[in-house]
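anyone seen this seq b4? input:
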Amino acid sequence: MTFALELRGASRVYGNYVALHPIDLSVNTGKFLAILRPSGSGKTTLLRLVSGFVAPSAGTIILDGVNITTLPIFARQCNTVFQDYALFPHLCVTDNIAYGLSVRRRSKAEVAKKVRDIIATVGLSEFARRNPSQLSGGQG
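predicted toks r here
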């Protein structure tokens, strides 16, 4: 079976400190996953591994059936939404979302459709032209 995301024994160690103990995780396509654990348990490290900000010390990361373990950040078809988000303050919601797709040189039509779909999915259609400073914490 192919999962949208699969981690096989993925871990991260910094010297003697284990930031993420080996984890096996499979997420089906179309599913939403929330990771709730105490501070220091490895949640952010896990996200950083999947996104490519850090490499795993061991294990494999598979996205849509493709081993992305050694792919650089820009070559991965995934993203991370940070707790303390980093949005372009001068761009509206639509343009912030479109930025990554535009950098990947997607057609204007594809970017427009994906942005509309994303905004609708997260329930921000009525706020699409607002800048980050015009959103509440839960919206940004």
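Residues 52 and 72 are 6 Å apart (CA to CA). The longest strand covers residues 17-27. kinda curious what u guys think
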